[in-house]
Structures are given as structure tokens and as C-alpha cells.
Amino acid sequence: QFRKMRLRSGRSRIHERGPFAREPIVADKMVIEYVGQNIRQAVADTRKKRHAREGIGSSYPFRIDHDTVIDATERGNLARSIH
């Protein structure tokens, strides 16, 4: 059974912003799912260059395997700020 954990976004000493749990985190329980667009590595490479050109300072790609990336830059959730 999956239940959404209560999280909040706040200022972080590690990175600009980050998620903080509003309840105890139990071992072996899922905290949050990384949400974004499922894209190929070639598309991720193209987006990285475009983001640099457009001055987008933070992008949030998460590599799944050799050719699969979840890109949370435009359509992500709070999980993208976990570092």
C-alpha cells in the first residue's frame, strides 16, 4: 500500500531548495516518486544544450539506464530537488 508522505519544500544548505519530511521516515518505505518525462539519452543531450543556450540554470535529468532518462525540468515534482 502506498500513501503520500507529507513533505514540504524549503531552503536547503546543500542546494537552493529541497524537500523536508513533515513526519518520521520509516526504513524501507518509499518517500516520493521521481516524476518527469521519459526520454531517450539523445533527447536529453539536445535539451541540455538548449537549456544552456536559453540560460536555464537548473535542469533535472535522472538516468534510469544506458538510454533512458527521466527529465523533471519542465514537468517534475518535489523529488527533483533531492540531492
- What's the quaternary structure here? single chain
Which of globular, elongated, flat, extended, rod-shaped describes the shape? globular
**Which fold name fills CATH's third level, the topology?**
Beta-clip-like
Report mean pLDDT, rounded to a whole number. Answer: 87
The radius of gyration computed from the alpha-carbon positions, rounded to a whole number of angstroms, is 14 Å
Name of the CATH first level? Mainly Beta
Count of spatially separate domains: 1
- CATH architecture grouping: Beta Complex
End-to-end Cα distance, whole Å, is 26 Å
The major pleated sheet works out as:
3 strands, antiparallel
The total beta strand count reads 5
Spans of at least 5 consecutive residues with low confidence: none
Essential attributes:
alpha+beta, 3-stranded antiparallel β-sheet, Beta-clip-like, two-stranded antiparallel ribbon, 83 residues, 17% helix
Q: Care to describe what's here?
A:
Keywords: Chromatin regulator, Methyltransferase, Nucleus, S-adenosyl-L-methionine, Transferase. One of its GO terms (cellular component) is Set1C/COMPASS complex. The protein is α+β, with helices and mostly antiparallel strands. It has one domain: Beta Complex (Beta-clip-like). 17% of the residues lie in helices and 28% in strands. The chain has one helix and five strands. It has a three-stranded antiparallel β-sheet. Strands 1-2 form a two-stranded antiparallel ribbon. The two termini are 26 Å apart.
